[in-house]
Amino acid sequence: MNFTPGDNNVTMALNYRDTFVVAIGKNVAVVVLGITISYINATMVHTFNKHHIFKMNPRFILFIHLVFNDMIQLTTSISLFIFSYTFHTIYVSICCLLILPAIFTTQNTPLNLAFMAAECYIAVCVPLRYNYICTAKRTYIVIGIIWAMSSLSVLPDVFILLATEPLEFLNSRVYCSRDTVFRSTYSLKKRDTSHIVFLVVVWLTLFYTYFRILFVAKAANADAKKYF
User: Fold this and answer.
1) Which end of the chain is more exposed for a tag (fewer CB within 10 A), N or C?
2) What is this structure's pTM?
3) Interval 101-107 mean pLDDT
4) Going by C-beta distance under 8 Å and a sequence separation of 6 or more, which residues neighbour residue 217?
């Protein structure tokens, strides 16, 4: 009964202020956390570059590639998060430049973990051939394969976008996300298929290598007990 338009305006202003404060708090928290993690990652990259012995070890090469990959993913993800609050919508072409590195690095992470598991498997289960199979040169080739596999999974979305969407869409402003940019049904089906293939291959690799390592470790432990 006592409600007035003036009270409504005050309420809307208070809600807007609270929303604005919450948004600023979220962005500051994300940026501070991102800078902290990036600093830790940058320290590990600096340590890797400082010591030549690390550059000759396949395990450290794969690990530092994972760290560097995470730095790119973190930077692009934070940028997308901030842009979503600051501008809400951006041009499709600019959005693609931000989304593609994030997608690439997201795809790289499980593949990198799979190859790290394979390296551990070779070190434990095939130790006599480890130095022949796992070399620094072959490790960099593996890193190239990782990026190539991610490219084969992601770049078709760009070609589908250019083939199916009108030119006006590329110059329009949208909320920057993968679903709003690569919105074709072909992209969605291809994405689901590639995710399933990656999931199956990576999980089979991880389960097989770690169970094989576990069995070899138990066998070695049993043999060691025979001598004591």
Assistant:
1) N
2) 0.82
3) 89
4) 124
